[in-house]
Structure formats: structure tokens, C-alpha cells
Write a structure and sequence with these properties.
Keywords: Transferase. With 705 residues, the protein is an alpha/beta fold. Helices cover 41% and strands 17% of the residues. Strands 3, 4, 5, 6, 7, 8, 9, 12, 13 and 14 form a 10-stranded mixed β-sheet that branches. The longest helix has 23 residues, at 8-30.
Length: 705
């Protein structure tokens, strides 16, 4: 999907008008440079979205052979049953070769007694594994025969009247890795003109089916996230090879074709697995080329659609009895297994490669999904930058965006009764949305997720600067946040320290700690294989700019005396001019780095010299999760269960901070003690198990629910 706007000027004006009140606040408290950076970020993304049109190969001669030789041992076996229609088959193969994939795949083509020279022509295609049936086996028999020959760990069944689109195969296989319960994963099917053919299929109690989203615009939010479905079309369907063989393949009771895919989906569910639709796998399907489209005809392959429907209905009558009647609400029917629904609204799109609050948020989504919630997310301004939207949709998060949702309050007016829980993240998003949520979500518990206490951070900045104007801003922010807490049903904070502050400031507010959430990776390299110092933090967050200037101007000159060969790497999006000016022979300003793990593995120390702030610091969490010891100020380490000398080194002034880095650099025993201690803290307080337990307690969910 691509973000587009009507005109750059119209979009810019729209952003500025909606952002104006917040812009004034940022200007007063954080200065012109920070305001310009934030406006630049917002103007760089556009909230209007349309789907990329399908990329099609012209169905015309010449049909020169294409090379389908796998680049490595195949992980995936693509099985294509064929009967005549050589032109479509050639372009199906050409699209596979042209698009490619990150995973190695082989192509197994089963020629089911074609009479148009298909088999004779395909023998000239390098790398193609061609199987020729001695007698006509039909779709079911041909698929099963191709699966018997497969070498890959995954099977993908693909009709010959399809053309795959970029990323189609990797999106399917990613789903098996993202969702360990996945049994079948099906693609989004499109017509050649770009309209949607199927976004997963819905079955009804009488055994009839409906292709959800048929003929609609495919880029609407409701069609664009991974979800569990009744079944997916066999036109583009993936399954683990071992599972397919264990289940006996497609059942010959449905030969030659029709309902074999629905029956397989029901057998996969009976085996304890889930059938998923993955919209990021896009496949164009020239529907009806092989079997025709007239369901009423009494002749040809299509007549088996009615015959096999009765076989399917009889076999699965007991299960189908729990399904709805034809004509029921399709939006409910499309995800009949969903037990709970949550809407999450945050100030911005989730960008986990750019700021730590987004890491917490995306991991919160995963835990909520594990607790049975369907997660719907919206940025307050309904922005939709890629690849972040697709990254959420890939793991099953429904994302709301323009032009299909123009205001969150409009969405709530139409769908508010669907939600059991509404989480409003950060004060500005909560202030803009809480009233509408209270009005339109009568069943929902409303949570104000502070992320950090903004008023505490701004008050500390005022103290550091001795600025009365900033102090007044902090007091207004305090009044706003406390008011939101009292109007919400529940407030989340990220540390016991902030909970204790609220116990004094607002003892009437119900507060729960739901802290940062991280996967704990452990140390990739030992002490003696590392060197250098790391600072990481987005510069849209003003405390990071202050910390880096303190580090470069006051700490580094002292450290150069103690550790002359030490080098500092500074990572963070949009570094301001004064930070860029700090670059030198031993200070590297790297800006935004999409993959930071190599730095966690290579550096000897991570530093967090914050002089003001609030909340729990993701930069420290990330470092500790990778076994990288941290030197931090007391403000930076606040609320993180860290002990000086055991899991962190604490220093507040420049000489003490420089000396702490030097100690860590020259003492391998201290380094190892801090590395091990930091990992223990992360596992105990910031891992997924701790966060899930905190959410269960906060939301009154019992174990097993």
C-alpha cells in the first residue's frame, strides 16, 4: 500500500490546522528547533491511502521459457495443477520468476493430461519440476501428487490462472513464524482490475460460502489485517508440508474439485491449528479460466460445486450448526472466534525502530492478542506511514486511517458498541478522544495509558532551567493529566515510582503499573570482543538532546583522559544541529539506524546521562535486554529496579559519570556482573510474562482467559 495525498499544500494545511494547539505547547516548552522537527515528521507522512494496482504480465506471445531454478535448498514447494490454458500457466510461472522471494522455493507443476501441448512446452523451463499424470486426476488428485514430491517444509498450492505480486510468498511464510498456531495461511485474491475478489471466506450454517470483501476496494482497513477465517481459497494457500501429509492431503471425497479447501481448513482446526488470511500476500486471480463461472450449469467441472457442497455439509453438520445463517452481519461473521475487542489510540503511528514507547506499544498489542483481544489501532491524526502500517497489519492489528476513517469520533459513533476496552495512550490523544469513547462505548472500560507522567518530566525541566514559564506549563499539564485519570476507569503508569507519586497527588485514582515490555536476548559477545560506548534515543524527545550535549561537552573531555581510545556512537532519529556539531574523531552521529542490534552486540557500555525526564527509559531496557551494561543518572534509572554496582552504574555529575564508564571499560569482572544482573532485572520486571500478569491484574482477567 502507498500513501498519497490530493496535493502537498492541502495536506500540509490539514496537518498544521489539526496540530496547531499542540504546536503552541511544543513551541513554548521545547523551542523552535523541536517544533520544526516534529512538523517535518508529520508533513512527511500522508494519511490518505490507496492500494498499489496489481502488476500484470500481458497475456500474449512470445512465451519464452523462464528460469525457475531455486537459489538454494527450497524452504517452500509451490504446487501448480494444470489442465490446458498454457498461456495463463506461462504467465503464472513468469510472475513467480519475476517477483521472486527472500525464501528459496521450488515450483512443481502437475500437468493433468493437457491436450494443448502444455507438457511438451514446459520441459524447456529450467528448474521447473514437471510431473505429468498418466490419467486425469482433477485438481484434488493433482495437488496431492505434487505434494508427495515436495522437498520444502511448506507447501503453497497455486492456481495456474494467477499472477503473484511482490512480497506474496514471504508474507505467507512470515505468518507461520509470527503465529505458531498457524495451520493454513491464505492470500488476498484480487481481480486483474484491482478490485478485491476475496479477503478470506465466510461459511454459513447451511454450508454455503461468501467471499468476504468481494468486488470492494481492497485497501479498506477491515480487509487489510491478518485474521483467523473459516477457510481460504485453494487458489493460493500455504500449509506446512508435514501437517498436510499427516492429515492425508486434500480428501478425494471432494474430487475432482470444490470444497476440498474448506474441508482441509476444518480438519486443520480439528487438529488444533488456526486458518489465517494474510492480506499482505497479494495474488491476482483470473477467476473461472479453468472451471468456468456459471454455477448453474449441469455440465463440466463446475457441477461438482453443488455436489461437493452437499458432501461438505453432511460431513461437518455438527460444526456448521454453530455458524450463523446466511444474511447475518458479515463484519461479525468474518471473525466469529473473536471474544474481546480493544481500541488503542496513540498520538502517533507506532514506529518501534524510532522510539521506545512504540516498542512497548507493539508488545502490548501482542499480549492483548494472547489474552483474546482483537486489537484495533489508530494514530490520533489517522496518519498511515509505511512500512509501519503493514508491520501492524501483518501481525493481525486492524489499523484505522484516512480516507476510510476521517475522524476517530465518527468511527466510535458507528462501532463503539463493539469494544470491550479502549486504551488512550498519552495525554493529548486521551484528551481528544476520551469524551467520544465515554459516549459511544457503553460496554468498554476506558484506560488512560500515561506512557510517562508528562507533568513530572516538564516540572523537572523547569527545575533544571529555573524557568517560570516552563513551570506554569508543567502545572497546566499536571491539571490535565489528573483530570484525565479521574475521568478514565483506570490509569496505567510504567513504574512504581510514578504510582507512588500519584498516590500522593491523586489518591482517588485507580492506578496500575504496566511497564515497558521487551524480549530478553542476552549477550551476543563477551567483554573482550567489544569496544566503544553507545547512546541511543530519538531526538524528538527533548531530554535526549540535553543528555547528548551533556555527554559530549562535559563527560567526553574527562573520559578522553581516562580512556584515550574510547569511541562514542550516537543513534537517534532527527538529531538537531547542535547535536550534529558534536561529531568528531571519537564521536559518531549516526542518526536513525533501522537495525540497532549490531551496536548492542559490539559496544562495551551503554550510557544514559539524562538530566531530566520521567517514566521508564527504553534505551536502558534495550541495552540490558542485550546484556549490555549501562551507566546512567538517577533520573534515567528511576523506577527500573536497578541496583548500583549490581545491575547498573549510577552517576549524576560529569566527573563521576566519566569515571564510571572508565571503571566498566577496564574491569571485565564488573562488566560481567552488570551484564548478568541487567538480564535478570529484565526477565523479572520487563519481560512478556511480567507484562501479561500486570495486564491480567489491571483488567481483572483470570488465568486461562
Amino acid at each position: 500500500m502507498t500513501a498519497v495525498g490530493s496535493t502537498a499544500g492541502t495536506h500540509a494545511l490539514d496537518i498544521i490546522l489539526r496540530y496547531f494547539p499542540r504546536a503552541l505547547h511544543v513551541l513554548r516548552t521545547e523551542g523552535v528547533a523541536v517544533l520544526l522537527r516534529k512538523l517535518k515528521r508529520r508533513l512527511g507522512t500522508t494519511p490518505l491511502r490507496v492500494a498499489d494496482p496489481p502488476r500484470l504480465l500481458a497475456l500474449s506471445e512470445p512465451f519464452d521459457p523462464v528460469d525457475l531454478t531455486p537459489g538454494a535448498a527450497p524452504l517452500v514447494s509451490v504446487v501448480i495443477p494444470v489442465h490446458n490454458q498454457f498461456g495463463y500457466t506461462h504467465h503464472c510461472l513468469a510472475a513467480l520468476a519475476h517477483v521472486g522471494a527472500q525464501r528459496a522455493f521450488e515450483v512443481i507443476l502437475v500437468d493433468d493430461c493437457s491436450s494443448d501441448g502444455t507438457g511438451e512446452r514446459l520441459v524447456r523451463y529450467p528448474g521447473l519440476r514437471l510431473i505429468r499424470n498418466p490419467e486425469n486426476l482433477g485438481f484434488v488428485g493433482s495437488c496431492n501428487r505434487g505434494a508427495e514430491a515436495a522437498q520444502g517444509a511448506y507447501l503453497v498450492f497455486l492456481n495456474n490462472d494467477t499472477q503473484v505480486q511482490p512480497g506474496w510468498l514471504d508474507a505467507l511464510i512470515d505468518t507461520f513464524e509470527d503465529a505458531p498456531d498457524a495451520g493454513i495461511v491464505g492470500s488476498r485474491l484480487l481481480y486483474p482490475d484491482g478490485r478485491q475478489q476475496e479477503a478470506g471466506a465466510i461459511l454459513f450454517a447451511d454450508g454455503t460460502a461468501w467471499n468476504y470483501g468481494h468486488l470492494d476496494a481492497p485497501d479498506k482497513p477491515q480487509y487489510s489485517y491478518r485474521r483467523a477465517v473459516d477457510y481460504c481459497s485453494g487458489a493460493a494457500l500455504a500449509i506446512e508440508t508435514a501437517l498436510f501429509r499427516r492429515l492425508g492431503g486434500f480428501d478425494s471425497a471432494f474430487a475432482p474439485a470444490y470444497y476440498e479447501d474448506a474441508d482441509l481448513a476444518f480438519r486443520v482446526r480439528a487438529a488444533g491449528r488456526t486458518v489465517y488470511y494474510q492480506p499482505l500476500s497479494r495474488v491476482v486471480h483470473f477467476e473461472g479460466i479453468s472451471a468456468g463461472r456459471d454455477e448453474q450449469t449441469q455440465t463440466g467441472l463446475k457441477r461438482y460445486q453443488r455436489i461437493n457442497a452437499e458432501t461438505f455439509r453432511t460431513r461437518w453438520a455438527e460444526v456448521l450448526a454453530g455458524f450463523g445463517e446466511r444474511g447475518e452481519d458479515l463484519e461479525r461473521a468474518k471473525e466469529r472466534a473473536v471474544r474481546r475487542r480493544v481500541l488503542v489510540v496513540d498520538n502517533y503511528m507506532v514506529t518501534p525502530d524510532r522510539e521506545s514507547g512504540s516498542v512497548r506499544m507493539i508488545n502490548l498489542f501482542r499480549i492483548l492478542q494472547g489474552l483474546g483481544f482483537k486489537v484495533t489501532f489508530a494514530a490520533a491524526n489517522l496518519e498511515a506511514p509505511e512500512p509501519y502500517v503493514a508491520d501492524l497489519q501483518r501481525i493481525g492489528v486492524e489499523v484505522l486511517y484516512r480516507p476510510y476513517v476521517r475522524r476517530i469520533r465518527d468511527h466510535l459513533a458507528r462501532h463503539g458498541t463493539d469494544y470491550d476496552l479502549v486504551i488512550l495512550s498519552r495525554a493529548d490523544a486521551a484528551a481528544a478522544t476520551l469524551d467520544a469513547a465515554r459516549t459511544h462505548c457503553p460496554r468498554a472500560r476506558i484506560v488512560f495509558d500515561t506512557v510517562d507522567l508528562h507533568f513530572l518530566r516538564e516540572h523537572r525541566l523547569a527545575q533544571l532551567q529555573g524557568d517560570r514559564a516552563t513551570l506554569r506549563v508543567a502545572e497546566r499539564r499536571k491539571a490535565q493529566e489528573l483530570d484525565l485519570m479521574r475521568r478514565a476507569d483506570l490509569t496505567f503508569v510504567v513504574s512504581e515510582a510514578e504510582r507512588d507519586i500519584l498516590a500522593v497527588e491523586a489518591p482517588d485514582v485507580r492506578v496500575h503499573v504496566v511497564s515497558n515490555i521487551h524480549r530478553v536476548f542476552g549477550s551476543a559477545k563477551p567483554y573482550d570482543a567489544r569496544s566503544g560506548i553507545l547512546f541511543i534515543g530519538a531526538f524528538a524527545h527533548p531530554p535526549n538532546t540535553d543528555a547528548v550535549l551533556f555527554l559530549c561537552r562535559e563527560i567526553m573531555p574527562l573520559l578522553r583522559v581516562r580512556v584515550p581510545d574510547s569511541r562514542l556512537s550516537i543513534i537517534g532519529a532527527d538529531p538537531p544541529r547542535e547535536v550534529l556539531a558534536c561529531a568528531g574523531s571519537d564521536i559518531e552521529i549516526l542518526g536513525h539506524v533501522p537495525d540497532v542490534e549490531p551496536f548492542f552486540a559490539a559496544c562495551r557500555a551503554s550510557v544514559a546521562p539524562l538530566r531530566y525526564g520521567a517514566g521508564v527509559k527504553g534505551k536502558i531496557n534495550q541495552s540490558l535486554a542485550h546484556g549490555l551494561p549501562v551507566v546512567a543518572t538517577r533520573v534515567a534509572a528511576e523506577g527500573m529496579h536497578l541496583v548500583d554496582g549490581e545491575s547498573v552504574l549510577i552517576a549524576d555529575d560529569a566527573p563521576a559519570f566519566a569515571e564510571a564508564i572508565a571503571r566498566l571499560d577496564r574491569d571485565p569482572l564488573l562488566w560481567q556482573r552488570l551484564s548478568d544482573g541487567g538480564i535478570r532485572v529484565m526477565e523479572t520486571h520487563f519481560g512478556f510474562a511480567a507484562a501479561e500478569q500486570a495486564l491480567r491484574e489491571a483488567l481483572d482477567l483470570e488465568d486461562g482467559t
